Amino acid sequence: MPHPFQSVALVGNARDTRVGDCMQGLAAHLQRRGIHMLVATEVRLAFPAGSVAQCPPGEFAARADLIIAIGGDGTLLYAASLVAGRSVPLLGVNRGRLGFLTDVSATSMIEDVDLVLDGHFSEDRRSLAAARLDRYGAPTVRALALNDVVVNKLETGHLLELETSINGRFVNSHGGDGLVIATATGSTAYALSCGGPIVEPDLDVWVLAPISPHTLSDRPVVVRGGSRIQVRLSERLESRAQVACDGTAIGDLRPGDTLHVEGSDCAVTLLHPPGYDYYRLLRSKLHWGRGGFDDGKPPA
After folding, report:
1. Which residues, 6 or more positions from 242, have their beta carbon under 8 angstroms from its beta carbon?
2. pTM of the full structure
3. What gap in Å lies between CA 262 and CA 264, rounded to an integer?
4. Which CATH architecture has domain 128-265?
5. Topology at the third CATH level for domain 7-121+273-286
6. Strand locations in 135-220 (E)
7. pLDDT tens sequence across 130-162
8. Checking DSSP bridges between strand 141-145 and strand 122-134, what pairing results, if any?
9. Active site positions, annotated
10. What are the domain boundaries of the chain?
């Protein structure tokens, strides 16, 4: 039985011709299927007459049954921020580079979208981390993250010293360029470039990965997902840091401020067409398994 996706929002950077072409081609196909479509107000593309309505992206969660994110993982992270904690699922079409979250290829886009619209898909629920930045003399800032919460230095050439605690227990003082607190979903993002492990996305764990640590003993740590993590900037060094959630800056971290990262009741749901295989995705993106086993079959 077809799934009741009667209204679909298309999200992507339409100024990128590769994304814009995909959006136009998909819109023409969805119109033939009788699907109502939404795009952001600022999108300037030639869609089939009467097939697409424009509205602020903040209205997508209330007006769409499905969001299709066309671009890289950054586009899907943006789409996730629009529906965090809501029941609207996401489907990612990869027009970026690696694309660990946008697993539908442009070449199979129409076929895969049809499968999803006909009810053939798997649901993949991903938990979010909740960040709270308590700043001395300034309002508290809150944000959610599907991938990661990152503390980065602001001044080039200045070392950060970050003091971390987990569930009320002091862990370490990290000297370096910053710290990544990644969910299992975000283990293949910034944390991976910091030497962190790849984590199966359905595991309830987080990765704490120091960025360019000053000492070789400062290594990534895997902790239980939803742990209460606190990060403070040491007052011994004159430096400033910035906090970002899924690549979007939420504020500066100064001596006397505290960043709290905890579990959240909010989640997002990703949809995958039939045949989705996380390890096949890793092999494709990271060029693993050349000359070895493929899909469980031994090499000839």
Report:
1. 151, 152, 153, 154, 249, 251, 252, 253
2. 0.92
3. 7
4. Sandwich (2.60)
5. Rossmann fold (3.40.50)
6. 141-145, 148-153, 160-166, 169-176, 178-183, 205-211
7. 999 999 888 999 999 999 999 999 877 778 999
8. antiparallel
9. 73
10. 7-121+273-286, 128-265
